[in-house]
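Database export, one record per block. Field names are fixed; values are copied verbatim from the stored entry.
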Amino acid sequence: MSKRQILLLSSSRLAGFDYLEHAKEQIEGVLKPKQVKTVLFVPYALKNYDSYTKTVSDALSKWGYKVEGIHEHSDPVKAVKSSEAVFIGGGNTFVLIKTLYEKNLIETIRERVLEDHIPYIGSSAGTNVATISIHTTNDMPVTYPPSFDALKLVPFNINPHYLETDPNTKHRGETRDERIGEFVDYHKISVLGLREGTAVFVDGDKTSLVGPFPAKLFKGTGETEELPPGSDLTFLC
């Protein structure tokens, strides 16, 4: 039976690894069960679509996958509807979500992933747009999207590149934890702080934390909890 396959990476790069190399096992774990041969890449979060798509193609082609940039298609909605898998890369989340709205891709991607069960891979900004909203991105609002509402592939928010404050720092400005806490206080929505090298993996009805590091959960109640590697996150869904 077909089931949902969603991989939400904190980042495409990790110190000591080539581009996407640290997530090779996780990516293949999403693509191989669906016998994916061609991945539709969405480069809208950066300006140079061709260069960005080539970077992803160079990485995935080594593992036997062909990569097509959505911008290479005259009809992006049709491209998503005929795709085997969708990968949305990182960059600026505000630019990304604005472009997805402009090209009428929000509902199409959501339908393909949640109803047709094609694999979805997101990294950084691509992870942000897979959640309830983009409110917990780290990016600067360099443009104004029509809405902060995102794809809603998972029913919680994520803060990619999560990094707690060094206890020895002399900086006394607002911390990442305080900023996420402020969002939670207003919206009562749980936020998962994903450290570099970690990801959320949705495999059918089960959701888990993958990668070698823990994640920090900011609960909608205002409490926080450290979740060890391999934690079952199904309760968030």
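Remark 1: Residues 49-61 form the longest helix (13 residues).
Remark 2: The radius of gyration is 17 Å.
End of record.
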